[in-house]
Every structure is written in structure tokens, then in C-alpha cells.
Automatic annotation (TrEMBL):
It is found in: Cell membrane. This is ABC transporter ATP-binding protein. The lineage of its organism: Bacteria, Pseudomonadati, Bacteroidota, Flavobacteriia, Flavobacteriales. One of its GO terms (molecular function) is transmembrane transporter activity. One of its GO terms (cellular component) is plasma membrane. Keywords: ATP-binding, Cell membrane, Membrane, Nucleotide-binding, Transmembrane, Transmembrane helix. Belongs to the ABC-4 integral membrane protein family. It holds the Pfam family MacB_PCD.
Length: 424
């Protein structure tokens, strides 16, 4: 029996494919183009995913933000339309009653984008968001501390009037190179000492620069300085690893509604933004995009495989006399079949690998261009494919090659030696 992997078999394969090299190149191009499109589509999807998820960079995505609104239903003698505030004991109740919560950070806010100037340092003024926070908040929305430090529990307990300012705030209030640590700024006429500066890597509604225009002070000092008593403006709540804030939020709402005598079915009384839910939707979107990329790429690849199958049928027809002679000399059906299939698989893999190499070159060029034109707001970053995708592509190529050669191979072994020898 002829060994399909012998040196003679490979010499025959190369001779058969090079006998009409132009036809072979045209046939191979279909598979090359299919695998090229598949890799590029998957890489483009990954690049878009990287760009979008960059906006969540460093954030505790298993989190939600919650704030009080107006009660929309009367309950236990209390009227519809009443306003209420979260309290500090709400925070303790949530921590105690829901152990699956990792962080419950109360927050208060002053000022805002486009508001009146609320921060003064010498002759420089600015309108900035000012937040009263606990130390845990930096674990929920990480930031790079570029100098000094963040809030600590000594600041909370002693109600220290200290502030951590964004790099953009520093640039607005201080001259370049001027010392800022230990200096004072006035927030709504109250002096706070700067103990640190930060820079955020994630964006703020798509605006990285705006994310640097914030000031953080201890929650207790904020409440004392601006007469907030034990009121809480809103909360940042993060679930433990392995738990889902989306599944826990109904328990959170029930506790808060009970403490503030709100109708259990009043869904408008508490506002919230579920970051985990939004992040999960984005993940689902990119899973769908990858599925579409695979579908489109495989369809294009299939058209190339059909082209190879058709050419192999022509090759078998051209080699009818040769096949007849081999059969007459004792060649088995398996040796004939394996030779045709091997030629098909070889052509498919070679053309497919060329497509992968070409796609890799294009991706390297794109990444080089992106590195030289980086922007914090870019929604496309590092398009790439991993080894798993390459492995899948190779598996698709091998299966495609087998399928492309199967029908021609079956036709080849059906040729009777006597009929083949009569063929001109």
C-alpha cells in the first residue's frame, strides 16, 4: 500500500499543484481571503471591545450607584410627592443585613460642571465637583495618586479639612512647578488643606479631562463644613467577588424603603445606575459581534473551500488516465483517496496560513498607527487575536481541506481502470 506521507507522495502533490500554478494561485486566494477576513473581523471586534472597556478601566464593575428621589405613592399616612434623604444609619443597615456587599460608600456632592465658581485659591477660581467620601471609594473607582495621599480613616474620625485634587484642578489653581501639597484652597468659603493629587485613567462620560476636575474631601468634614448633618446624597455600592449587585439590589431597595416608610412597590422613589448590568450588556454585545464575525468569515471561507473542491474535481478529471494506470498497477482505493485529500488539505492549509500571516501584518500596521496617534477618548484600541483564535482557524482550515477533497476523492476511486485507460 502506498504511504500518503512518503517523499514520493509529496513530490507528486507539489508537481500536481505547480503544473498549472496560475490556477492554483486563484484557487488558493479564495481560502486566503476567507481566513484573512475572519481574523480581521475578530481583531476589529476585539479592538472595539478594548476601546469601550477602557472606559471601565480600573473600576469595580460589580457596583451600582443609588440616590433618593421623590416618593410616587402614599404609604402609611405619608403623602405622595414627599422628598426624603438617605442617612448614615442606612449605610450601616445595608452592611449589617447584606453580608454579600463588599463596600457601601456614602457620598455627598457640591458644585458641578458648568456651575458657579466654588473653589478659590488666591486670585484663581474655578467651578469643580467636590465630593465628601470615605477611603473605600478609591477601591471602587481607582485613580492614580500622583502626589501625596488619599483620604484615610484618621481624616474621617478627626473630621480633618483636607482635600485631594485632580491634576486639572491643580493646573487651574497653581502655577506650573508651584508647590501645592500643604497649601490651602477655599471651598464655599471653607479652608481645606491639599494633601494629594490624582489622575484618573478611566473616562467620565467619555471626557477624561473632565474626570480630573474633581476634589475629594473626608465625608465627615464635608458634612460638618456644609451643614449636611447625617444626610447622605447617594451611595456607591459594590458586591463581594462571586456575588452580583444586580441580584442583590432588590434587597438593598427593600431595606431602604422599610427604613424611610416608602411603599414596597414604589419603584420611582429610589434612583440607581447598575454598572454591572451595563457592563454585562456590553459583554453580551461583543459576544454577539464575535459570533457574527465567525459567521461571516466562515461563509467567505466556505466559498473558497468550494472553489478548491471544484478545482480538485477538474484535477481528478484531468488525471483520469493516470488514476486508471495506478489502479491497474494495484493501487488501492485508500491510496488514491488519501492522495487527493492530502493535496486538498495541503493547498487549503498553505493558503490559509498565508491569509493569517497577511492579517497579522495588517494588524501590526494598525497597532503601530494607533500607538503613534493615541487619544484618551479613542474607542478603538489594540485590535488583536489570541492563540485560541489561531487554533480555531487552523482547525477550520484542516476540516475545510478534508471536506474540499472528499467529493473529488470519492469520484477518483469510482474510476474503473479499463474506462480510465480508454480516456483520451
Amino acid at each position: 500500500m502506498t504511504n500518503p506521507f512518503s517523499k514520493d507522495s509529496w513530490s507528486e502533490i507539489l508537481e500536481a499543484l505547480s503544473s498549472n500554478w496560475f490556477r492554483t494561485l486563484l484557487t488558493a486566494f479564495g481560502v486566503l481571503w476567507g481566513i484573512f477576513i475572519l481574523v480581521i473581523l475578530l481583531a476589529a471586534g476585539k479592538g472595539l471591545e478594548n476601546g469601550v472597556k477602557k472606559g471601565f478601566s480600573g473600576m469595580a464593575t460589580n457596583s451600582m450607584f443609588m440616590w433618593s428621589q421623590t416618593a410616587s405613592k402614599p404609604y402609611k399616612g405619608l403623602p405622595q410627592g414627599r422628598r426624603y434623604n438617605f442617612k448614615l444609619d442606612d449605610v450601616e443597615a445595608l452592611k449589617t443585613q447584606i453580608p454579600e456587599l463588599k463596600y457601601v460608600s456614602p457620598r455627598n456632592q457640591l458644585g458641578g460642571f458648568g456651575g458657579a465658581n466654588n473653589v478659590v485659591r488666591g486670585i484663581n477660581t474655578g467651578a469643580f465637583n467636590v465630593y465628601g467620601d470615605y477611603p473605600e471609594f478609591i477601591l471602587q473607582q481607582p485613580m492614580d495618586i500622583t502626589s501625596g495621599r488619599f483620604i484615610n480613616y484618621s481624616d474621617i474620625e478627626q473630621k480633618r479639612k483636607v482635600a485631594i485634587i485632580g491634576e486639572s484642578v491643580k493646573n487651574a489653581l497653581f502655577e506650573k512647578g508651584e508647590d501645592h501639597i500643604g497649601e490651602f484652597i477655599k471651598i464655599n468659603e471653607v479652608n481645606f488643606m491639599i494633601v494629594g493629587t490624582y489622575r484618573k485613567t478611566s473616562n467620565n462620560n467619555g471626557d477624561v479631562e473632565e474626570a480630573q476636575k474633581e476634589i475629594y474631601v473626608p465625608f465627615t468634614a464635608f458634612s460638618q463644613a456644609f451643614n449636611r448633618a447625617d444626610n447622605v446624597g447617594w451611595m456607591a455600592i459594590t458586591a463581594q467577588d462571586g456575588a452580583s449587585i444586580t441580584q442583590l439590589k432588590e434587597q438593598v431597595f427593600e431595606i431602604v424603603k422599610s427604613k424611610h416608610t416608602i411603599h414596597p412597590e414604589d419603584d420611582r422613589a429610589i434612583g440607581h445606575f447598575d454598572l454591572y448590568e451595563q457592563f454585562s450588556k456590553i459583554n453580551g454585545l461583543f459576544i454577539a459581534l464575535n459570533a457574527v464575525a465567525y459567521f461571516v468569515g466562515i461563509l467567505i471561507l466556505l466559498s473558497g473551500v468550494i472553489g478548491i473542491s471544484n478545482i480538485m474535481l477538474i484535477v481528478v478529471k484531468e488525471r483520469t488516465k493516470e488514476i486508471g494506470i495506478r489502479r491497474a498497477l494495484g493501487a488501492t482505493p485508500w491510496s488514491i483517496r488519501s492522495q487527493i485529500i492530502l493535496e486538498s488539505v495541503f493547498l487549503t492549509i498553505i493558503s490559509g496560513m498565508a491569509g493569517i500571516v497577511m492579517a497579522t501584518g495588517v494588524l501590526a500596521l494598525i497597532n503601530s498607527l494607533l500607538e503613534n496617534n493615541t487619544s484618551p477618548d479613542t474607542m478603538f484600541a489594540n485590535p488583536s487575536v489570541n492563540l485560541f483564535v489561531v487554533g480555531v482557524a487552523l482547525a477550520i482550515l484542516i476540516i475545510s481541506g478534508l471536506l474540499a477533497g472528499l467529493i473529488p476523492a470519492q469520484n477518483a476511486i469510482k474510476v474503473k481502470p479499463v474506462d480510465a485507460l480508454r480516456t483520451e
